[in-house]
Design brief:
The complex is a heterodimer of chains A (195) and B (418). By secondary structure, chain A is of the alpha+beta class. Chain A is built from four helices and twelve strands, in the order αααβββαβββββββββ. With 418 residues, chain B is mainly alpha-helical. Chain B is built from 16 helices and two strands. In chain B, α5 runs antiparallel to α6, α6 runs antiparallel to α9 and α11 crosses α15. The two termini of chain B are 45 Å apart. The chains are: A alpha+beta (195), B mainly alpha (418).
């Protein structure tokens, strides 16, 4: 009984809380590396840049290259496709943000903001639908141009039906954003480096 | 029903063992002598079938791992290697692949049984909720397993499903990158899915243990929904239900073998015999049949985040089902209006599955939206209101009474022939 009289309840509470707090911090510090090991490792990050020679890509041709495990669509657009892309007013767009890492952030989704100056025939963008990640098919969809029996420019995602125009902007379907333009630069007249 | 054991060992070894580890007493109380309602119908045999399926999947899975290589360059070929070169591999691989479908057929019948006979109602709410957890772990396990053959549908299914998490505001992108271990589905994704696919069935076995424990506290529900009132209502599990379960398991295995030996690829997709190609998406991608209703709900909502919420919501709503259904009568046999709505709900689920297999365009989208709305209305409006307005039929005084009166009617029917 005499010891009980000397118990200082507030001291005990402090000890409980302090022990609990140190335990929680310790648990978090132990668990974090176990979770973080699942993030991209050094070898995955090391593949972060690729260089591509565009000299062989003729007007109206399209290639796909691999960058960080994803396809990048590079299209040498025809004059008509560029014209069609420029004719679109910003308020007609579902996503008015350029989604471009080659222009300043938050720019409007104009054709200029989604290409590099003096090389605006080249449209370089991720071939990853912004809905659930499928690869959109070129020369398909409601916003491709029709030349006789051939469709050019424009992309269509077969998974859930998203339509992209000749500047890779989302126009119809469930995808929320324009196809993003990755960070890239022309390192010579015909060569680009992505990443 | 989980009280102290009244087992008395007779042999001297039995006594010696009983004082040290009373494992036989546990077996006798929870399996052999376990008092079980005498009127269980064939729908009650699917719990046993599911336990067997889990064991079968673990067994064939452990064997497959002896021959499989979880690497993007070798996974696809190692599956072909199993089918073509490994002794009996063609059969063992198909038992595992088709087994996943059989597992889901059994679990869906088991779940609809629970919904019709009100097996989720007091005092079995926790039993039901553990069941929903089992179903969620099953879905995750089957999804990761489907990625391992590294075919086109494996790859794009994995990409679309993991991309669902990118719909989460602010942290979505970081979560998908973390899940992938890169910027797309790739080798790190395959190897971690392999690791987790091996782990989860054992978690499942643990949770199934809890499920059975939670079953053994209140005991089985039964087709009348009336609680057990006396020893007259029950019979021991062994030999009555071991025999009944055993018979149905044999029939189910015949059904299983039909698919494995005569239609081994019918439940899968031909395009998965093409190796994964990250540059080309197949023209029409669909999940396995057992996910189709949820896939239809995902696509019915025209908004990315909204679709993801509706899809997960359609499963998670099962957790609160015991509280959404306000009727105190358990069995649908005594609820005439509920019976009709239950049949409509079952048809809606199957129809959603059909719509999930079709391309997301035109009338398919419209119907997906109507039926998705109905799916939620069933849980959120029909079930709560029905319990308050419906006038249920008179319940039998006891299970024994219900069984006897059924037999009496049969005797009356026979009388004119005398």
């Amino acid at each position: 009984m005499s010891t009980a009289d000397h118990v200082d309840a507030s001291k005990r509470d402090f000890l409980y809380i302090a022990t609990g707090a140190v335990g929680a911090v310790g648990a978090a510090m132990t668990v974090w590396p176990l979770i973080n090991q699942m993030n991209p490792d050094a070898s995955v990050k090391a593949l972060a840049t690729v260089e591509i020679d565009l000299a062989a890509v003729a007007e109206g041709q399209e290639i796909k290259v691999f960058w960080r495990g994803n396809p990048v669509i590079i299209r040498n657009r025809t004059a008509k496709e560029i014209e069609a892309a420029k004719a679109v007013k910003i308020d007609e767009l579902k996503d008015s943000d350029a989604r471009s890492q080659v222009s300043k952030e938050g720019g409007a989704a104009t054709d200029e903001n989604r290409t590099v100056k003096d090389h605006e025939n080249f449209l370089v963008m991720m071939g990853v639908c912004t809905h659930l990640g499928c690869v959109p098919i070129g020369g398909e969809g409601e916003f491709a141009l029709v030349e006789g029996s051939v469709k050019t420019g424009g992309w269509y995602c077969p998974c859930h039906g998203s339509h992209y125009d000749t500047a890779g902007r989302i126009r119809k379907g469930p995808a929320p954003e324009n196809l993003p333009v990755p960070p890239y630069a022309f390192i010579s007249d015909t060569k680009i480096r992505i990443g | 029903m989980s009280g102290p054991s009244n087992y008395q060992p007779t042999s001297s070894f039995g006594k010696w063992m009983h004082e040290r580890l009373p494992v036989y007493a546990l077996l006798k109380d929870t399996v052999l002598d376990f008092p079980t309602p005498k009127n269980l119908n064939y729908f009650w045999t699917f719990g046993g079938i599911l336990t067997l399926m889990l064991v079968a999947q673990i067994l064939t899975g452990i064997i497959l791992v002896m021959h499989y290589t979880p690497h993007v360059d070798m996974a696809f070929e190692s599956k072909e290697h199993i089918i073509r070169n490994v002794n009996g591999g063609w059969m063992i691989q198909k038992f595992h692949e088709v087994g996943a479908s059989m597992f889901f057929i059994a679990v869906y019948i088991h779940m609809f049984r629970g919904m019709y006979y009100g097996s989720y109602k007091a005092p079995r709410e926790v039993l039901w909720m553990i069941g929903v957890i089992i179903y969620l772990i099953m879905m995750a396990t089957a999804f990761m397993g489907y990625v391992l053959p590294w075919g086109q549908m494996s790859f794009w299914g994995a990409k679309v499903i993991t991309n669902l998490f990118s719909a989460i505001p602010f942290v979505g992108e970081s979560i998908t990158t973390w899940l992938w271990g890169g910027y797309s589905v790739d080798n790190p994704t395959l190897s971690r899915f392999f690791s987790l696919h091996y782990l989860m069935p054992f978690m499942l076995a643990g949770v199934v243990g809890l499920h059975i424990w939670a079953l053994h506290v209140p005991g089985n529900n039964n087709p009348t929904g009336v609680s057990v009132k006396s020893g007259q209502d029950t019979i021991p599990f062994h030999p009555y239900y071991t025999a009944k379960d055993g018979f149905v398991i044999a029939v189910f295995m015949l059904f299983f073998c039909f698919w494995v030996f005569y239609r081994p690829d019918y439940l899968g997709h031909a395009i998965n015999y093409e190796q994964a190609n990250p540059l080309v998406t197949p023209a029409h991608i669909v999940p396995e049949w057992y996910y189709l209703p949820f896939y239809a709900i995902l696509r019915a909502i025209p908004d990315k985040l909204g679709g993801v919420i509706a899809m997960f919501g359609s499963i998670l709503i099962l957790f609160v089902l015991p509280w959404l259904d306000t009727s105190r009568v358990r069995s649908g046999n005594y609820r005439p209006i509920f019976k009709g709505f239950f049949i409509v709900f079952a048809i809606v689920c199957v129809a959603l599955g059909y719509l999930g297999s079709k391309p997301a365009e035109g009338a398919y989208v419209v119907w997906s939206r109507i039926l998705t709305a109905y799916y939620f209305i069933h849980f959120l409006v029909i079930l709560p209101v029905l319990g308050l307005v419906e006038n249920p039929k008179a319940l039998p005084a006891s299970i024994a009474d219900a069984v006897l009166s059924k037999n009496k009617n049969k005797q009356y029917a026979l009388q004119p022939a005398e």
